[in-house]
Amino acid sequence: MTAPENTTPPAAVGNAPAQPITYATAGVDVEAGDRAVELMKAAVQATHGPSVVGGFGGFAGMWDASALLKYQKPLLATSTDGVGTKVAIAQALDKHDTIGFDLVGMVVDDIVVVGAEPLFMTDYIACGKVVPERIAGIVRGIAEACQVAGTALVGGETAEHPGLLGVDEYDVAGAATGVVEASAVLGPERVRPGDVVIAMASSGIHSNGYSLVRRVINSAGWSLDREVSELGRTLGEELLEPTRVYAADCLDLMRHLNGDTVSGASAAVQTASGEAALRGFSHVTGGGLAANLARVLPQGVLATVDRGTWSLPPVFQLVAQLGQVPLPDLERTLNLGVGMVAVVDPAAADAAGERLASRGITAWVAGQVAEASAAESVSAVEQAPAEDHVQGAKGVDGGAVLLTGAYASR
Fold first, then answer.
1. Which of 63, 111, 280, 290 could bridge 178 with an S-S bond, Cβ 3.0-4.6 Å?
2. Residue 109 φ/ψ region, left for φ over 0, alpha for ψ in the -120 to 50 degree band, beta for the rest
3. Per-domain residue ranges for the chain?
4. 65-71 long-range CB contacts below 8 Å, 24 or more apart?
């Protein structure tokens, strides 16, 4: 190979800087990134079971897929999400070890809706400046939530973006992959008229609607350190309450009611029809309860949900009152106390509630599914305000949901 004829550095163009420009002076601190990795290492490794291959710090996370050989027809499920503007609350309070639960919950609880077990997850953090303790705190929260979900955190990336993000700003995102036996997939095709809707209590606002919430709080002039008697703590503490991660609880409920097609365990509940008792789940995120429930219903059915079966938690009442937010806007933006929904055979309703209660999940029967063409269903829809009725949602031409009554008083 012939050497290049001229290896002299090019002459400076324009005004040369007084000092050489390095990556560090450009705003990227590689050593700080390495320190953050060391601080998060133990937390990430704690999520690793025998299926994680290659350890910590590789270019790619690896997961031993031979575990899938026990499936007859394994289907992979994947989901990705972020936390939204809730990160602004974490940044304002300089508390970063809970935001990971919001990220994991938003991702793995979408996967479990189809009955899939989330196997592994990766995360991505973009920040204006790497502060090792802050980054490690975020990742520790992600890792702790992964442990709750039974999911391995196999990799991630921290990117420093000076000039694009402020030194105290960051955003987080993640993706997860899960697996479900093809014959066990949950979905609209399983739902039957007569099924009941079981609501599972949320831990608070979770991770949707914070643009509305923050606008209301700012408009009212309330500070995050304000003590709020109705909440029993400061406003900031309430707004930063982590998202409840339902994945392990939902999978346990599915195996309890439907049996386990992989292990061969039989169901604890036998339905008259012989069909699986648990029909499906709905993760209540952006769009609210009605819109997300409609996504998992088949065409031709109507789920009627009675608001009177629960009362609005204080934080939602506070947002409504401070901002004079109309009820329809609240219901299509916030979860209003219900973070996950299960649709089950009516014969399994009691067993479902007891199983969830045994795992610390407050749950109750909130509604019922009926044929949309039934006379009583048609009459109920015709008499209800238009905003109480949702037909399909988010591009899914599915079933319908009708919200009735008023929320119970506390």
1. 111
2. alpha
3. 28-181, 188-404
4. 68/179, 70/262, 71/179, 71/181, 71/262
| CATH of segment(s) 188-404 | 3.90.650.10
Question: Do the Cβ atoms of 234 and 225 come closer than 8 Å?
Answer: yes
Residue 32's pLDDT is 73
DSSP symbol at 20: -
- Average pLDDT, integer, range 297-319: 97
The torsion defined by the Cα of 53, 55, 59 and 63, in degrees rounded to 10, comes to 20
What tokens does 316 get?
């939602």
Give CA separation, 195 vs 259, 279, 345, 369, in Å.
19, 8, 5, 5
- Gap between the Cα atoms of 302 and 369, Å rounded: 6
Query: Do residues 86 and 207 lie in contact, with contact meaning Cβ atoms separated by under 8 Å?
Result: yes
Q: Which residues of 59-78 are buried (b: 16+ CB within 10 A; e: fewer)?
A: eebebeeeeeeebeebbebe
According to DSSP H, which parts of 240-285 are helical? 247-258
Please say whether the beta carbons of 199 and 311 come within 8 A.
Answer: no
Owner of token pair 């993760």: 283
pTM for this entry: 0.90
d(CA 367, CA 304): 5
The CATH code for residues 28-181 is: 3.30.1330.10
Helix axes 132-149, 99-111, angle to 10 degrees: 30
Whole-angstrom Cα distance, residue 277 to residue 349?
A: 9
Confidence band for 347, pLDDT divided at 50, 70 and 90 = very high
Degrees to nearest 5, angle at CA 160 with 158 and 162: 165
